[in-house]
Amino acid sequence: DIVMTQSPLSLPVTLGQPASISCRSSQSLVHSDGNTYLTWFQQRPGQSPRRLIYKVSQRDSGVPDRFSGSGSGTDFTLKISRAEAEDVAIYYCMQGTHWPFTFGPGTKVDIE
Amino acid sequence: EVQLVESGGGLIQPGRSLRLSCTTSGFTFGDYTMSWLRQAPGKGLEWVGFITTKAIGETPLYAASVQGRFTISRDDSKSIAYLQMNSLKTEDTALYYCANMGRHPAHWGQGALVTVSS
């Protein structure tokens, strides 16, 4: 199985300041169809996961543009340009290239 | 508005069976792979499996931890996906989510809690 690692696992952020989460996979996530199925989810306390970013950098409708995704191959990043109070959540990366699809352990973001 | 609503959860004894339903609206159900995922209390997210569309064979795939015990099916006429869980184990205790799409689940339900305990 593909192992997804995230760092840091805990990220205190300052309101208005940038934040960055790293996600690495144990194998390349480039699919034979040419796509890279790396997805970022946000899970606020007591809520279901919400998809933020898919195929590395495609932001979902309604997701603030302060969220951005980048990366390639095995190395990916989620960036928050200016943290807001509503960004307090656990963020998961997930690979959908190789079955079984797998999640990272999650990064808990809270306000410093 | 896309909606997915899981139902059928509850407290069940080890070795027994339970069926979850995922009732959907707001999208063309038959055009989407439907997925089941779970989250044990206080833990991270885990795939259970998914079922592809009828157009590409209505093929289910399962995680190793549930292979042979769980069955995913779909009824396109009712826009409902199902998760049949047999031979339940205590380690199957989790909040079970359904979601549409496979490789990058787009919309998720609120989850159905399954507690396996004697």
Short note summarizing the structure:
The complex is a heterodimer of chains A (112) and B (118). By secondary structure, chain A is mostly beta strands.
Number of strands of chain A: 11
Rounded Rg of chain A: 13 Å
Tell me the Rg of chain B in angstroms. Answer: 13 Å
The percent range for strand residues of chain B is over 45%
End-to-end span of chain B in angstroms? Answer: 40 Å
Termini distance of chain A?
Answer: 35 Å
Q: What class would the helix/strand composition of chain B place it in?
A: mainly beta
Walkthrough of the structure:
The complex is a heterodimer of chains A (112) and B (118). Chain A has 112 residues and is an all-beta fold. Chain A contains no helices and eleven strands. In chain A, strands 2, 4, 5, 6, 9, 10 and 11 form a seven-stranded mixed β-sheet that branches. Chain A is globular, with a radius of gyration of 13 Å. The mean pLDDT of chain A is 97. Chain B is mainly beta. Chain B contains no helices and eleven strands. Chain B has strands at residues 3-7, 10-12, 18-25, 34-39, 45-51, 60-62, 70-75, 80-85, 94-100, 107-108, 112-116. In chain B, the strands form two sheets. In chain B, strands 2, 4, 5, 6, 9, 10 and 11 form a seven-stranded mixed β-sheet that branches. Chain B has a four-stranded antiparallel β-sheet with strand order 1-3-8-7, with no helix packed on it. The termini of chain B are far apart. The chains are: A mainly beta (112), B mainly beta (118). Chains A and B meet through strand 4, strand 5 and strand 10 of A and strand 5 and strand 10 of B.
